[in-house]
Amino acid sequence: MKKISIFLIILFVSTSISTIFTNSAYASVGEEDITSKIQNILDKYDINEPFSEEDTQLLIKYSSLNNNITYKQNKGEVSILSTSKKYFTGSDRTLALTGYVEYDTSFGKNSWKLYMDAWDTSAIKRNIRAEIKIDCVGIVNFENGSMGKIYNNTVSQASSGKVSYLTLNKTDSFTGLPILVFYYPKATFDGVDLAGEFR
Fold first, then answer.
1. pLDDT, tens digit, for every residue of 62-75?
2. Given this model, what pLDDT does residue 175 score?
């Protein structure tokens, strides 16, 4: 009976979120502000700490309007196989970045290939740091179905001196069952941040 209730909780949450994410009509509305609100919610909690009911509802609401998310539907089956690849770009005057996140999941094992090129189009040499932050949300309490952050990591690459071009090419992985996966790519040029936006 307990196994059935756990399955129903995951199915209910996944189906609810899936229904919201199918509506992309508002994907471009206040993207930067929504991304900031999502990060503020996620940053409030430690790994495996249940979200409040209010923050859970806000997270689901904001997620339906945000392009930084990869939806990973989870119906309690361990034989889920999925691959996705999302591309991002960013530019501001002479600063630019482009890259992608490739996500593979199989039997609860999650792995990422993370790639970014960051450069100054005028070839001015700068201290450059490229990073991609990953946040995964899932069920943290199977008794009541509470959601929380189940994984968080920032993969980065920094120049050893002033350069005009920098490449980040790394991998990351963890074992778990995420329902929501968020990415936040960013490059920093001499202390000036440039965020990547997913296409």
1. 877 666 666 554 43
2. 94
Amino acid letter at 150?
I
Q: Where are the beta strands (DSSP E) in the chain?
A: 69-71, 81-92, 95-106, 109-120, 128-141, 146-158, 165-175, 180-189, 192-195, 197-198
Q: Identify the DSSP state of 160.
A: S
Q: How far out from the chain centre does Cα 95 lie?
A: 23
Q: Is the pTM of this model over 0.85?
A: no
Cα–Cα distance measured from residue 124 to residue 192, given in angstroms and rounded to the nearest whole number: 14
Residue recorded with tokens 């430690």: 46
Structure tokens at 183: 């990415």
Output the CA torsion 102→106→110→111 (10° steps): -40
Share of the chain above pLDDT 70, in %: 75
178: closest CA among 87, 25, 47? 47
SS3 3: helix
Q: Which residue has the tokens 């968080």?
A: 152
Pairing of strands 109-120, 128-141: unpaired
Residue 173's pLDDT is what? 97
Q: Which residues pair with 92 in a beta bridge?
A: 95
Between the alpha carbon of residue 75 and those of residues 25, 91, 102, the distances in Å are 26, 38, 22
Tokens representing 121 are 């189009």
pLDDT of residue 22: 27
